[in-house]
Amino acid sequence: MSLLNAQDVGDQPPVIEGGSAESDDKALADKAPDFDKMSAREFFELIDFGDSYLQMFLDGQPLEDGEQEAVIRALTRIRRLQPHRITRWLELETPWEDLGKAPQDHRLDIFLLTGTVEAVREMTVPNEAVESVGLATYYEVDATLDTPMGAVLGTIVVEDIPHPWKVTLNPVKNLTGAPISCAGVFLKPFKADDDRQGFVFATPKISWHPTEPNSDLGVTVDQVRLAEQGMDIGELSHIKDRAKFEGLEREPFYQMMAAVKRIPLNQHTPATGTVSQYLTEPKEGLMVSPQNYRARFMRLTGVCRRITKIEVDDEDIQQRLGIGHYYELAIFVPIANPIVSQRAGDESTRKQFTNDYPVLVCVPELPPGLAVGKDMHQSVAVFGPFFKLWAYRSPFMSQEDFTRRQISPLFIAANVEKYTAPSNPQTNQFVLAMLVILGVVVGLGIAFGVVFSRKPASRRR
Question: pTM here?
């Protein structure tokens, strides 16, 4: 079971008694439609987004106020698209010419879109509709979309945008040219004022793949490295430190693992610092300001005490990202200063790590010579990005208080290797000198022993 969906003891759902679960499941199965045999359009029609709403879209012109009801309906119904449905219905090649000539034949088909941002507009839902649709605002993203024949215009409506975009929302300075991708549900074609062809799509989410650092948007060099391998950097805003894993963290976790796997080994450049150094920095360290280290690639060396294999039973993750399992390693890294955990004002709860501290690392595969196990003592080296400070139960931290959790940095890496600590030249010289002295002493001892053990020849029998 994945650490992303494992439940703690005591968090299990209650058992409802009365009636046969087997017969109830069979009855529900008999009534339930077979979604796997449906097209995307049939699915939308089943959830009340059919012709009555599609007729509101006016082909040939940009979106206008009279189409807002249909747009809002599209967004609220797209919420129900589970990732594995999108994966199954997603068409990797878009018939751009047909979308313009015969839009009715492709309405609500889902296509993979890539391109760059031109502008972003925040749209307001009428007050009288906010409560019923559960939506107060949404966004229209004007984009230049990639096609085999060149770029075309696109307007993508989406319920939400990456959090850093909302903080600035300045398309001229920050967002213009931002590379994006999404699963676009086709709504209609339009003609721009300059008579260029354009297309309107709706999407559950826009993925953001920056190609260069941007301090205004908080994009770092390491985040660009992950984006170049297909990760949606906007997903990083869903990560919460010092907490259990939550549902929204599932996507950035697996996307980061898939991206790290794709980075060539010759691009695993040395980091400027080690995890051991960052752990105990008093003001801006990893344990104090984890958000400053999000997705930063670091090197860590330490002693691996445990390796656990985690099976990923999510079919969508298996198909879309190619991850069927991974391994979780508990690695104790050396620390220069003690790390103390204590409940405020309660000295009896004091827990102290003096020489080393537990760090968790998730890797897709293990190298030869490493295997699943407990009570290990194997020195290892790892290079990968920081994901979050994870709060989890451990025997050391939770033994006296079941609710208390260990807080450890969690990293994702492409691989792990056995590690032999480099020798210290000064230590080597000292050891060599001691060995020489010891050799001399032993040699003298043997010599004296031989001398004094000899007897006079006259007394020999």
Answer: 0.81
